Automatic annotation (TrEMBL):
Record organism: Cohnella yongneupensis
Pfam families from the UniProt entry: YycH
Top-level taxonomic group: Bacteria
Transmembrane domains' residue ranges: none
The protein's name in its UniProt record: YycH family regulatory protein
Domain Regulatory protein YycH residues, every copy: 3-423
InterPro entries: YycH, YycH/YycI_2
């Protein structure tokens, strides 16, 4: 009798085990809904638009070499020529990439004699990200390198086009052995520059206009602001748990939920958000992962206000990701009294630890336009020489807007801006009133 009871109990346990196995295999446990970490955010109502990485990578400059030591420079605001060339090059395929040495070609001779186009980026772009923009063959040994310049030229006296990608180490270049570009294509691109401003260079690095540039405008731009409530909803897991600390009525405001912190400058609308990230045992930070994570974070927490470009930050490292803001395809350079014109995030292995940006939203309405002129020729070269004499190496010269906020009115003033080797950007000289013709 006892043996029968044991057998019955054993059979019952087997049946229960089978039922449990069936439930585990075919039911959907609600574990995801119950588990929530401190890194989870509530997806709030979007404020700005969303962006993709391929729209945030484009050349800061296009240098057109027309032969006979004649050159010009197109910037993103040089429409429609800049857009036409970039669109055509994005449709071309660059294959069979091979490593070469930078000293095998006399690049000074190429820039003076051969027709070609240089695409110059404001920071080094990893091949993996560059492949999101151009049709570059990724099956080669050194695809983990980063590129800051692409040079396409038609060899003088030879029916061939050569394409080179310049590594940031300053020594290595990569050549696309197969690219669907013809001499006619290159001559067509260069032809756009025949009637544009003439630029010249003594070192092949900085190109300076030979005469003043008059196609620039100062203007007042209509703007709005993201409200504090909108930002709190976008950045804190539970905005209702935040506390407000305010030093004075006109000073910065501070918000915290005991873990994250937010500082908002009342006058300028500049915000700094911090979210301490615990250090990890693995100190490696993958820049590509950080860039993609930063873009995703901005898409969900504030969005984008107009055109931006992935750019270089001061003393660049793999942790910091910076995006330059443009208005009318012209970059905005922060002044000493007003932070505006960029977003910057510090990342720890794809997780945001700090987030800086302006809460001002620039509109399309423009008033009080005024014709301005940027200096060129010897006057501009003298200013560049004086700056170089300080010991700082200038990597780039480009037109920009310097913002000025006064009496709740935002004015954008044209300037020549320079970028130093360490990533620092400064105003070289202001524009002046254009002469009346």
């Amino acid at each position: 009798m006892m043996e029968k009871g044991k057998s019955l109990l054993l059979a019952l346990l087997v049946i229960l085990s089978l039922v449990q196995s069936y439930l585990l295999a075919y039911s959907t446990p609600y574990l995801d809904a119950k588990v929530k970490t401190d890194l989870n955010y509530v997806k709030a109502e979007p404020l700005g638009t969303e962006e993709q990485v391929e729209n945030l990578i484009f050349p800061e400059q296009m240098v057109l070499h027309m032969g006979g030591d004649k050159h010009t420079v197109f910037f993103p605001g040089t429409r429609p020529f800049y857009d036409l060339i970039l669109r055509k090059l994005r449709d071309r395929a660059f294959k069979s990439i091979q490593l070469d040495s930078d000293n095998t070609i006399d690049w000074d001779q190429v820039r003076r004699e051969d027709k070609g186009v240089e695409l110059r980026f404001s920071r080094a772009i990893p091949f993996e990200l560059l492949q999101r923009v151009f049709r570059i063959d990724g099956d080669f040994l050194f695809s983990g390198d980063s590129i800051d310049k692409i040079w396409i030229y038609a060899s003088k006296g030879r029916d061939e086009v050569r394409t080179f990608f310049f590594s940031t180490d300053g020594r290595s270049v990569y050549e696309a052995q197969r690219a669907d570009l013809t001499v006619g294509d290159v001559e067509g691109y260069v032809g756009f520059g025949q009637y544009w401003d003439s630029y010249s260079s003594t070192d092949g690095q900085l190109y300076v206009p030979d005469a003043p540039v008059s196609r620039v405008l100062a203007m007042q731009v209509a703007f709005s602001r993201y409200s504090t409530e909108q930002i709190l909803e976008n950045l804190f897991t539970d905005p209702g748990t935040t506390r407000t600390i305010q030093d004075s009525l006109s000073g910065p405001q501070y918000y915290t939920d005991t873990k994250r912190g937010l500082k908002v400058e009342s006058d300028s609308g500049w915000m700094t958000f911090t979210d301490p990230v615990a250090p990890t045992t693995n100190n490696e930070n993958d820049y590509i992962d950080n860039v993609l994570s930063a873009i995703s974070f901005i898409n969900q927490h504030g969005g984008w206000n107009g055109m931006h470009a992935l750019t270089q930050e001061v003393e660049s490292d793999n942790n910091t990701v910076r995006f330059q803001q443009y208005y009318n395809e012209v970059p905005i350079i922060s002044g000493s009294k007003l932070n505006l014109g960029y977003m910057q995030l510090v990342m720890q292995q794809g997780v945001v630890s700090s987030y800086d940006r302006s809460l001002l939203v620039l509109g399309e309405e423009v008033t009080n336009k005024a014709a301005r002129q940027l200096p060129g020729g010897d006057a501009l070269r003298t200013l560049i020489g004086q700056t170089k004499a300080t010991g700082k190496r200038i990597e780039s010269l480009f037109p920009a807007y310097r913002p000025m906020l006064k009496d709740n009115k935002l004015t954008l003033l044209p300037v020549w801006a320079i970028r130093f080797e360490n990533g620092e950007v400064a105003v070289l000289t202001e524009s002046v009133a254009a002469p009346i013709k």
